[in-house]
Amino acid sequence: MKVLVLAGVAPSTVFSHVPLANALRNAGHQVMTTASVDELMPTISGVGLAAVRVTDPNLTPQQIIAQSGLTRVPDEPLEREIMAGRWYAHMEYVTLDALLALSKDWRPDVIISGVTSYAGPLLSAHLGVPYVRHAWDIHDPKFMDQGAQEQLREQLTALGLDGLPEPAMTIEIAPPSMRPADAAPAQMMRWIPGNSQAVLEPWMYTRGEGSRIGVTIGTGVASYNQYDFLQGVVENIATLDSEVVVAVTEDAAPTLRERLQNVRAGWIPLDVVAPTCDVLVHQTGGSTMMTGLTFGVPQVLIPDTRMYRAADMARRLAETGAAVVLTPEEATSEVIAKTCQEIITNPSYAEAAAGLAAEIAALPGPDEVARRVEALVKA
């Protein structure tokens, strides 16, 4: 069986596909992986998957969006979510010719398409092969789908379709208790981290006698000059007599190590360090959230309230009792430190997180889901 994986727009979305892609390869199937951002080619090959280029390496995502004329950024979060669907749809559509050309040389039997990999359903309709929609986190993409459908109206009409084609299978990875009551039936799958690895140091997988707090604020520390904010957070957390580890990209690590002499900072594999933490502090990254939940780690979430997706995921996790949400305005370094102290000293947060981890662990593994994908293609 030939499997084509459309892995999305960011390292975290690539990582989400690794467990199932590896399960399919281990079952003897051929797997190729593409992304709608060319700079992700090294990320795909770096996690051991075959990477196929379907984008123009000379164009940035921002340039691709600019060529579409979709340059307006709405202020209202829900409108921005719908517009994000239009952006993703355009970025995916411009890869369709390359995907069709690839399919002439290497025709897939099934397409596994990430949540916003809207080229997946289009390619499926062109080739007449099934596609599987693979969730990346707990977020419901219905409003992004609305925007994507609006953006692709002309292309869908040319295919004789009134809307985006329904997937032959939808894979969901959220703990069952966190799924909305009206959620459609889906193939559940256990979340297993698929992030990039590194040569490990003992401090990454061990901890001292006291508490440990993990901090990550995404990949934009250097780009957005967030050193002062991160330094303030870490210095205030350090007053709790807790060890602090900061997961950042290597371009940001030297400055942080210079400014924060007693803090471990660098590209730390999150699946290695998360089990050693009592709390994770982050900006509501879906992959970070799921990794923390897998290991039963309560979280402090600081979502960008302009982003519907981040605010929605943060709210839903906080409702389980496994997290505390702070708005960017509330999230001063002092408040973050006090919130971490509350989570460490109040066992209810860890208990709630452990309950969600147990739900995740009980779900079918990627190997079982791979067999169900096989059965889908054979049907």
From TrEMBL:
Signal peptide: none annotated. It comes from the Bacteria. Pfam families: EryCIII-like_C, EryCIII-like_N. Gene3D superfamilies: Glycogen Phosphorylase B. Keywords: Transferase. InterPro entries: EryCIII-like_C (IPR010610), EryCIII-like_N (IPR048284), UDP_glucos_trans (IPR002213). One of its GO terms (molecular function) is UDP-glycosyltransferase activity. Residues 23-218 form the Erythromycin biosynthesis protein CIII-like N-terminal domain. Residues 233-376 form the Erythromycin biosynthesis protein CIII-like C-terminal domain. This is UDP:flavonoid glycosyltransferase YjiC (YdhE family). It comes from Kutzneria kofuensis.
